Automatic annotation (TrEMBL), chains A, B, C:
PANTHER family: UDP-3-O-ACYLGLUCOSAMINE N-ACYLTRANSFERASE, UDP-3-O-ACYLGLUCOSAMINE N-ACYLTRANSFERASE 1, MITOCHONDRIAL-RELATED. It comes from the Bacteria. It is an enzyme of class 2 (transferase). The keyword Acyltransferase applies. Belongs to the transferase hexapeptide repeat family. LpxD subfamily. InterPro entries: Hexapep (IPR001451), Hexapep_transf_CS (IPR018357), LpxD (IPR007691), Trimer_LpxA-like_sf (IPR011004), UDP_GlcNAc_AcTrfase_non-rep (IPR020573). This is UDP-3-O-acylglucosamine N-acyltransferase. Pfam families: Hexapep (PF00132), Hexapep_2 (PF14602), LpxD (PF04613). Pathway: Bacterial outer membrane biogenesis; LPS lipid A biosynthesis. Homotrimer.
Length: 332, 332, 332
């Protein structure tokens, strides 16, 4: 249990200052709750005031806060404290033995014609179907389904309940009924992708659905058939993308946002929470469409007016016309 | 099959009146569809008109409706008919042998270092990981995943597909990519909590995600890392709470509502369906933010105007200015 | 691998013209990406310009485009090219051996008192509980849960992670806590229903939840207790229906739309994406309620104004009153 501060710095770099020799850390905690055997970090200048009061054994800080941090005790000085913290959590997890073990859990159902890299970890009660490919060091946590012919790259993390390669939602209408379009494509997932619990990525109708390298998807996300998500785009929980939409690289899609089908979203687009994207976005930027929350009684009055908004504009137009005609001549 | 009315009253209390001796009930049904061997209830005065027409063998009513109920047949008189009905459904389910049996289904994968109370029921194809704790009389239905070190209290009901303790969605940005923040916390769930199908509760980044006693979560809900939900709060299906938000006790969050991260919601707050909570709520009350539905053509006109709403306000302001200046002097 | 064009026409009908004898197709692809051994189709007149450029071996077209198609090569002429394409994908999937095999996968947990038709396919790690009924040729993909006494008709396709028959979300309030209403009903699903990955359909409280013949549900949909969905209605991903709502036949509910509880929706109603249906809909039509997305800065100005919309209307009303009184008499 725990790590020596010196071992942390040996592994992750940074400059350890003001620490007693042999100081051992027993946990990582936020500044305001860290105890005297815990390591903390200060990322945001806004929390600077918490620094002096923190009981943490040591604080990870940027060079600008070095002096202030040392006044209260030990510090690890590094250019990017938040990045350092991220790497520290990974080191900590490994030290606590929390890394997934390579191999296929005996309760998993892996088709003999699937290809699973020997360094991958297939957790309990996963299903990997015929022709699926799972890359090196990829982890399927538990109860993950990977459909036939779907491919997952290296170093991916797939959380419980994820469904990769269910049929896309495609039907031809015929005499008031729906005739199924068999979904003949698959899903292709790049390297270093993380997919949150119970998220669904459908297989393509003819071509594949594609998730590029470094994409991060949160829980309960819906990715429809033939969607393409560019490198290092991140999508938060409960967001959804309808069929054949192409999302660029380095986008951020906030929680419960929806993007309708057959659109193109440029790189570096940021969509706010619960926003519905109904047309293509050609330029980087931050886009929003959320009804502002209010006290229910206020909302009712505003919402009732909203239903007549077009008429309100017509009334304003009529007033403008009227006033123009009635404005007295300006003094010459 | 069935229960004697006298056995029901022996178990649940209330006063049975007007019933023939030995009357046996073969089902529970709403007033308007109950048959002559079924027990019904009248909770809402609005449905009082249905009472006279009901064919039910017996009706559960409040004292105020006793006389009216007895005119048509047997009645169980009790102060809280709806509560009585709830307890009756539980009695009925037990009588039909629908209660889960204690023990671990042989197809479940339970880590040898997990602690499962002997009275708990772990259903088929569940996964309980290392160090997890499952309390007395708690039921994991089927295909539930409980991650390492997560704790579930007593008398909880966890429905199929639930994922407790997947990683929270945390990354540090670095040169256009995302560096994973290993999620070192766990999930702590109190007693008497019910969690609906395919709902996800992520483990905390450093501290735990906490669900207090008596919380009820419906299906397909997303609870992000380090969220805290207070006692007896109920959340309906498809709602979502982003990271580190603290929801008070006795709140009601309606379906598909979203609460963004790092907020505080007071006790006794009611959030309407599909409302997006974007700032903390300090006072009990009812809060709403929903775009009113309309015929599509009407909506298009109003929505187009909404996109120019700020300009419309400016136009009104200009008119006000103009009219003030052009108003004729009032008669003296 | 592949199919002869003549075999396709023998199986599906249509008129094959301009094809070299023995022409074999090795894939199906969209017009713009099809290679010289692939079969394509032209459904929408909009894509007519792509026809001349397409490298496809053969194109499925309507009679009106026959001449134009034959100028570039082989064609299958049929009255409904998109329907033909749908049937072709099914033929293709069967020819590739992608059809599910009848029988119960050894890893599935099927209660001895469940009834599974011999022609049904129960995939890996599914759970079928006591008294459940699975009809002829129905496919449960993998990791599907079907609760006690729930019934699924013939020729249904149930994708991974689906939960049918979890408890509805019903509680009686009592002294600030929630008393569970045991859910005594079940779920009844008709024939030819398809249900997408991780979708949840709750059992009814007293009566059953009902999904009629031919209904198509996409992924991550929430169907609450006692909902009734009429024949051939289709619902797209992440949509949700709250308790006891009755949806008619032939409706289309777009993605992430919500319908609150205890409503009635007529037949042939189309609800737009992300629309919240808060009252019953008695007439066929197209209904919408979506906040229009905008550049974030624009949105902020409009949203701030929206919060004062009622007041803005009052200001317009005051101006109208003022202007009426100040309007100069018209020239006689």
């Amino acid at each position: 249990m725990g790590l020596l501060l010196t071992d942390i710095v040996d592994a992750l770099g940074g400059s350890l200052e003001g620490a007693a020799p042999g100081l051992r850390i027993e946990g990582i905690a936020p500044l305001d709750s860290a105890g005297p055997a815990e390591l903390s970090f200060l990322n945001n200048q806004r929390y600077q005031a918490q620094l002096a009061q923190s009981r943490a054994a040591c604080v990870i800080v940027a060079p600008a806060l070095r002096a202030q941090a040392l006044e209260r005790g030990a510090a690890i000085v590094t250019d990017e404290p938040y990045l350092y913290f991220a790497r520290l959590t990974q080191l900590w997890a490994r030290a606590q033995g929390q890394a997934a073990q390579p191999g296929i859990h005996p309760s998993a159902v892996v088709h003999p014609d699937a290809q699973v890299d020997a360094s991958a970890s297939i957790g309990p009660l996963c299903v990997v179907e015929q022709g699926a490919v799972i890359g090196a060091q990829t982890v399927l946590a538990s109860r993950v389904s990977v459909g036939a012919r779907c491919r997952i790259g290296a170093r991916c993390i797939i959380h419980p309940g994820v469904v990769i390669g269910a049929d896309g939602f495609g039907f031809a209408p015929h005499q008031g009924e729906w005739v199924k379009i068999a979904q003949l494509g698959a899903v292709r997932i790049g390297d270093d992708v993380e997919i949150g619990a119970n998220t669904c990525i459908d297989r393509g109708a003819l071509d594949d659905t594609v998730i590029e390298d470094g994409v991060k998807l949160d829980n309960l996300i819906q990715i429809a058939h033939n969607v393409h998500i560019g490198r290092h785009t991140a999508m938060a929980g409960c967001s959804a993308v309808a069929g054949s939409t192409h999302i660029g690289a380095h986008c951020q899609i906030a929680g419960a946002a929806s993007i309708i089908g057959h659109l193109r979203i440029a790189d570096h687009v940021h969509v706010s929470t619960n926003t519905v994207v109904t047309h293509s976005i050609n330029r980087p930027g931050h886009y929003t469409g959320v009804f502002p929350m209010d006290d229910n009684a206020q909302w009712e009055k505003n919402a009732a007016t909203l239903r007549q908004l077009y008429r309100l504009r017509e009334r304003v137009k009529a007033l403008e016309h009227l006033c123009k005609n009635t404005t007295p001549p300006r003094p010459q």
